[in-house]
Structures are given as C-alpha cells and as structure tokens.
Amino acid sequence: MRASSILKQLKYFQSVVRLNSFSEAAEENFISQLAISQQVQSLERELGFQLLERISPAELKNIPCILVTSEGRRKTEQEYYRDVVGFRGEFLYAENLEEARLMP
Fold this sequence. Notes:
Radius of gyration: 17 Å
Low-confidence stretches: none
Strand content: 5-15%
Mean pLDDT: 86
Number of domains: 2
Largest sheet: 2 strands, parallel
Number of strands: 2
Strand order of the largest sheet: 1-2
Order of helices and strands: HHHHEHEH
Helix content: 55-70%
C-alpha cells in the first residue's frame, strides 16, 4: 500500500478517535460515513489488528459509566453526562483512579 494512502487512513482514524464519532469525522473530512468506516477498516486490515471497538447505541446503554469524582460533585457530573452527553446507562462512582481500576 502506498504511504499516501496510509497517511490518509491515519488522518481519518485520528478524526474518529478525537471526535468519538464516525459521523462527525466523516463530516469534518468531507466524505461519507461509509467511506470513513471503510478507510478505518482498511487500515485495520493493513496493520493486522482491530483499532476500534465498535459499539451500537443500544449496547452502549448497558455499559456503566465510571465517574472518578468527589462525593460532592457526583450530582453535577451525572447531570452533565445525562443532559449534555446523552448517556442513559448506569453510573458507578470512585473517589480515585485506583478505586476505579478495581471496578468491574
């Protein structure tokens, strides 16, 4: 594969990761969502391993969100993720990263 093709695929991959969205990355790069998805899949085949775990919105609702925050900020953080991000799943709370790592 040509270096220019790989660089283009890496650019698209970087956009998907940064924006956390195939749709938004496609819009940013002025290509279709299908095209950006195919480019990322092509890069994955070239590298020989999967770069992204693809999760449907329905599956995402079943994944708990772990918030690492003080007890006093929990309600504010939860409201942000529900109202701004649109998260509808379960929240788990940890006081620090070590505690969060031990969660299921």
